[in-house]
TrEMBL record:
Residues 38-72 form a coiled coil. This is Cell division protein FtsB. The keyword Hydrolase does not apply. Part of a complex composed of FtsB, FtsL and FtsQ. The keyword Cell inner membrane applies. GO terms for biological process: FtsZ-dependent cytokinesis. Residues 1-5 are cytoplasmic. Belongs to the FtsB family. Residues 24-91 are periplasmic. It is found in: Cell inner membrane.
Amino acid sequence: MNKFKLNLILLMIFIWLQHSLWLGDNGIKESLHVSKEISRQEEKNDKIKNDIDQLQAEVDAINNSSEIIEEIARSKFNMIKPCEVFYRFVS
């Protein structure tokens, strides 16, 4: 009878440990969830880094080229050079 009780207690402890391992706080289920969240955040970070790099390249191009500054002034602000006439064709 004592051996049966010991086996039962050991089985209960084993079941409790398995439950804690798979379903408890900081268990495997939670670990997998956190790993997926980390992957998603890393993808977002990579996209933002690419956007920043692209914007930095545009800023560098603008700072180093007077033609780009002129193009922006003409297209976005409708600016013209002195003694220049601007014609707009409406269709």
